[in-house]
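User: Show me an example of a complex going from sequences to structure tokens.

Assistant: Sure. Here are the input components:
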Amino acid sequence: MTVDLKAYSVRTDLALEARELVQPDAHIPIPGVFEDVKEEAGIKVTRIHVQNEEGARAIGRLQGRYLTLEVPSLRRKDSKLQDRVATKFAQLFADYLKEVGVQENHKVLIVGLGNWNVTPDALGPMVVENVLVTRHYFELMPDQVSPGYRQVSAVAPGVLGITGIESSEIVQGIVEKSKPDVIIAIDALASKSLERVNTTIQVADIGIHPGSGIGNKRKGLTKELLGIPCIAIGVPTVCYASTIVNNAIEMMKSHFAQETDQTRDILGMLDDISEDERLALVKEVLQPLGHDLIVTPKEVDEFIEDMGNIIASGLNAALHEAVDNSNVAAYTH
Amino acid sequence: MTVDLKAYSVRTDLALEARELVQPDAHIPIPGVFEDVKEEAGIKVTRIHVQNEEGARAIGRLQGRYLTLEVPSLRRKDSKLQDRVATKFAQLFADYLKEVGVQENHKVLIVGLGNWNVTPDALGPMVVENVLVTRHYFELMPDQVSPGYRQVSAVAPGVLGITGIESSEIVQGIVEKSKPDVIIAIDALASKSLERVNTTIQVADIGIHPGSGIGNKRKGLTKELLGIPCIAIGVPTVCYASTIVNNAIEMMKSHFAQETDQTRDILGMLDDISEDERLALVKEVLQPLGHDLIVTPKEVDEFIEDMGNIIASGLNAALHEAVDNSNVAAYTH
Amino acid sequence: MTVDLKAYSVRTDLALEARELVQPDAHIPIPGVFEDVKEEAGIKVTRIHVQNEEGARAIGRLQGRYLTLEVPSLRRKDSKLQDRVATKFAQLFADYLKEVGVQENHKVLIVGLGNWNVTPDALGPMVVENVLVTRHYFELMPDQVSPGYRQVSAVAPGVLGITGIESSEIVQGIVEKSKPDVIIAIDALASKSLERVNTTIQVADIGIHPGSGIGNKRKGLTKELLGIPCIAIGVPTVCYASTIVNNAIEMMKSHFAQETDQTRDILGMLDDISEDERLALVKEVLQPLGHDLIVTPKEVDEFIEDMGNIIASGLNAALHEAVDNSNVAAYTH
Amino acid sequence: MTVDLKAYSVRTDLALEARELVQPDAHIPIPGVFEDVKEEAGIKVTRIHVQNEEGARAIGRLQGRYLTLEVPSLRRKDSKLQDRVATKFAQLFADYLKEVGVQENHKVLIVGLGNWNVTPDALGPMVVENVLVTRHYFELMPDQVSPGYRQVSAVAPGVLGITGIESSEIVQGIVEKSKPDVIIAIDALASKSLERVNTTIQVADIGIHPGSGIGNKRKGLTKELLGIPCIAIGVPTVCYASTIVNNAIEMMKSHFAQETDQTRDILGMLDDISEDERLALVKEVLQPLGHDLIVTPKEVDEFIEDMGNIIASGLNAALHEAVDNSNVAAYTH
């Protein structure tokens, strides 16, 4: 039995946001969903473990382990913070790999989903360009590879509109030829809240699913399809205009609720209906007029480059023992 | 006496939107404001002439002639439509130049405001890169310049954060050295409505004013400052999140007003208050949480490139008689 | 039996140059090598058919059909000439496809070899980005595809240093999944003469061979490897410094030979030895000092973009009957 | 009296190369020319002081202080070496500023000459984008600027073909408005030897002179013209094909001279004539055939980016006491 994600109309690719939608109060546990939140020096780390079908149904997310880093101040260009986030991400990701059973000698294929030419969708290809690949050394001169490195390869399969081929088919073909043990796929996501855009990294061992991310994926990258596990690293880089509006109304509701118990007077029916119903209403109004565009912050070029460096340097340190993970940023350019 | 634009809190750089805010019904004339709207083959052309102080106060815009092209379907990548828009813009702009007194032998300096490295703010520099400049030929070998060309030069002065110098000071210095008769300044603007982003071109003979456009301008490009007239070509490329929300609530109001006379029930107090009050409310909620970001559609790279080509080829045809303006696009790359 | 290309030390990927090396006089036929040269309005078209083993051995090129366009004036930025070259290339390539047995319903996979981030090696990826792909329409809604289009897909597999996987392995995997009938591979080449760089297009039905092109390919794209024919489109974008020097000495030799019969006095031993020996000598001197760099003209950015547009628009017109091939440039951006 | 640089036909913008042309043996002093060479950890630092007219005439360079860093191994991508070079350059440049009389409170205008869109000519604009500018803080909130910073501004004036205005006129206008005390101009140069391309940085207090650098400058940036001193930082990024050939013949001559005293036999007349005569000969042969192109190594994108970072981070540390110059690279992106 698979959970029908379509039923959840608020467009988010983040488990964190799905969880908040179901139960805004983080202290009330949801059966089948384990949650752990830590904050340290401006980096908030949330672990959500969807343990069974009951939990999956409850929050509308597949069973699996979701690790999320939130760093609101990433918005302010601060290269020291970026180094710190890259280092933290490297440590957390190294632990995560162990937790989900990826061993030190496992061969990794990094897949950078997305489109070079559309900046908010270019995160995946940008990571591919900056990670340290080693597979060719292992193939060509296995005796000369220093200890502390594992076999890593990386591809950016492009998007359907540019290639005419599903990216999942391209990856399948490459997996069959190059025989990795595990895939790490990087994807740009949609968030329901603008302030999570480019400040959040989600890691999940559920692969990439049809319809997720920015492009129109009709097939995914999953263990069922590929025969090997796929860990997804997703970063929200866009929002739908309708979710910005819906989210703002929600914020207005909370705002006025703190000041008055007459929010019904202020927001009318918008106060009564559920978030999903309200979103449907907003979409109903915006879409026919062509207003439900997908948007990204105007500083997108810089955000994507910074985030691409954080993830690439984090991956380099997490995947290769020989890369010093106390100062991971030195290994990318 | 100057009009205090700050009093108008809805953030728009478009006269069209300022006028709509004051009097949504286009058929009711505003004293001191002449307006003419024509639509042809998907291109809507609006001329607003703010004729005197009364009109300026009424719509919160400076006296002057505002020419606006709106082409909603520019969003759909259609190279034939783009050629058609470039050609139309060239013809309208050539007429506009005559109307505001720019003569055929006047020397033109094109100023591309904005920042190369921030895509939604890169329109100005992109136009500079694509226009046909001729001033150096007139300077170096005046006898050999073919008839039908005028003296055109072009600069991209950069932004304060990159140069440390106000762009208006840089332009002043260049004007004093190169002695043009008129400036045409290209600037990326903020719109109050997402659907006007990258589908609208505004021409105005009022120059560039402090605080307008995307960057933080503290000084402008005006006749007072420069001693020569400055025609501004502005294209909205961004929106504030708060104006998206406010605009959406307005649209919901109109939407429900068509179906019921109980919009008060649906939207509560949001229905009662003025657009300005409502925007203030939205900002009050969003800003402290860092949600009032400036956003741009995710396809921004392509939009800016297309719009840069339309404007550059339009300018080439409007400024040089020798450039055939029945097919203007052939002259840029 | 295969011809050992290594024996031919002058580094060129062009059959035209290989032929010139063997027999500079174009009027003296080489057994097993058919040659036909036409020049029209600044475009020189050479057809070389290496018909058998004898011919292959003679000029050190594999058996097959080589079509070469040379347009020296492509260097001067002239957009009308570019359109004319794209149109001519489209017509010649359409004929070539018939000649080598590619039928109208054959499904084509375009492979853009090379590296986005190294401009002289970015031609392949740039063509991929600009060609019209249709395979996904045939897969998703076959009934709605207009007549006059064929199934075309396109990939840029990246280079070994970025992916860690041979591009030939990646292509093999994609071929097995997407099942095209024929491959058209675009590759940047080395030329022995600087003036052919970015002014020449070579088409050959021999595939891509190890060591050809700019990157270090260890495996090729050949019918033996892929099971389907591979047509290579190559454009010289670089030269070795040593071949520039060697070529210049050759030119000096010809130059002085026209003026005197004492070239021996002027050029000493350089006049006596064969071109291959002289190249070996030049390399012997330059290489230890790190001077035998691969170079490209300084205008490489513009050249590669222009050439990418010519090839992409030529392919669009040659592959799809519905694309009007009297003005092919309109279909790319 | 000015020295006629045109008389020196070997095309180089480097004093180092001009000196070598006149007297290849570094141990034989040239009257009026002081020279000091130090090498440390792969970085060769040459100081040439052209002290008077006699020296200027002797080596065909203007009177002034030339500081040159040569780092042949910059070619091999090595980020630690790059950091080391940036740090060394910062220290040397800080000392150089003192030596030529630039004081700690002097206001600096950095001028990045060249063209964004032509990679080998993009060094100047790239440095401008990466330096720390502070002038606007001093102008807007002088009380709040931390100690240890000086007033720095930066502009990229563009090239004549894009702007239609001489870059020197643009800079003059900006100088008059912004009133700096000294200019530091960054320019891409031509070298006579390919191995110096992108491995060499020259600093000189002679300003920028007509005809120097890559673009066609007709006017320069000099104290005479601007009223303030101009320090030029030049990096060779291109070579003429003819100088590559000429240089190679020179290398062959040296090579054979070590093995035999019969170089006359090997190189004929090429052995007898002077380097200038030989270059004239090479040009005579190559130019009419369009072979005397300006070339750059194929890895130009990466070289220019690396060099831009080295210079920008070096300038930041040398100009602002507050920037730690033991690890200068951390301050650019």
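The lines above are the inputs; the final block is the predicted structure for all four components together. Residues 11-238+303-331 of chain C form a domain with the Rossmann fold fold (CATH 3.40.50.1450).
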